[in-house]
Amino acid sequence: MRASRNLNGRGLLRRNPQDACIWYPTDKAYSLSGVDRPADMELANHCGAVVAILAANHAQASDIEPIDIDGGGVEVAIAPPSALARLPHHPLAALFPMIPDDELRELADDIAAHGQQQPVWLLDGAIIDGRNREAACHMAGIDAWTKEYEGDDPLGFVLSLNLRRRHLSESQRAMVAAKIVIWKRGVNQHTTGSANLPTRDAARMLSVSERAVIAARRIDTHGIKELSAAIREGKLSVHTGEALTRLEHEAQQEILRREKKEIVAKSKEIRRNDAEKRHQVRLAHMAHVVESGAATAGRVAQKFPVIYADPPWKFGVHSEVTGREKSAENHYPTMETGAICRLFGEIGDPAKADAVLFLWATNPMLPDALRVMDAWGFAYVHHWIWDKEVAGTGYWGRDRHELLLIGKRGSPVAPLPGTQPQTVYSERKGGHSAKPAFFAETIERLYPDLPRLEMFCRAPRAGWTAWGYETGEGRE
Fold first, then answer.
1. What is this structure's pTM?
2. How many CA atoms lie within 13 A of 171 on its CB side?
3. Which carries the bigger pLDDT value, residue 6 or residue 138?
4. Structural domains for the chain
């Protein structure tokens, strides 16, 4: 039977749709064998390029006369469908969903009529790609044609095959990316965020935003199976599904029984209510930070050769359409530029005589950032660019990038030749003011053994001393 599946996959055999034990040669098989097509003949089993033609009237195996193309022979063994062995599935095979039952039946009919055109790929004897083909072959009573993967990047191989032949939406790709994170087993599901390497890597591999992957992971962990299935099948967006996970499982089931427009409307309602709650919490939090932040941040006693700062610039963007001011004050407490300039002296000038400063600046605040850099005792030398991939707002132009200015004091150690990063890095923007972890990680790579200070830090990171109104006292 193994020989039959091999030539079936190569288009040399086709199965009798009514009897899985009977095989017929295709036109291609007759052409290769040089044998004229008989009036009433059936094809049994074969091996490699050998084709065996059954005698008329459904001859038994003992009556078979093999027709030899390459000079070899074959023993014919016919197995009923019930004897077909099923292959185990590798976890990678579950990255992409199975096709619906009606499509699977169509695939089985096509394989029965025309043969299996592509192999089922195995890794250590388990399917990594081709679950649908293997299931369709079993449905047709055919042993699937398999090939063992021998490369060193099975994940990349599976993604390449499926992304090339499947037309997946961003939401469907996000669900795949979420499974990649789980497969790599690198993180705790409750700490997935913008600084999470497996999440960011998976987002890049599937060309989706980190936010979409985080939403997909929440759906996998907090959503019911029907919700996950609806998104994998392209019926709902991942962001609609993520909002529905705020509901209890029974409520999720009830919502999913409604029409799509009702489901989407409910999702928007949930997001709107959540946004209002978060806004009230932010306002209360910012009031507390403004009142107690300066006291809790404290002075910095240690001197640092490497400083990374993302000041809370105070500026408003006027909308000529609405007439309203859109301010960063809606998201976090801000500071006047003069107060930021004076800050170094107030907290004890944390920079060494030879130090390097990495200072974030937006386009409209570039002069202010250069003013702060000078006030802190640094001279501008270079800058890196973060391309946010999505354009935002702006009066003279719609901003889609921010600048990370680099300044030096004294004679700090410069990066070794060949280790410098490219000056432009692209990553889709996340939460308001949140910066990609790539930049802090690049600084770590360039200065692995030097003490590092992150100013205006909101979430302390390992290996850094954190200072900021939202971190408590400066600490490592």
1. 0.46
2. 18
3. 138
4. 2-83 (no CATH), 91-165 (3.90.1530.30), 170-270 (no CATH), 298-475 (3.40.50.150)
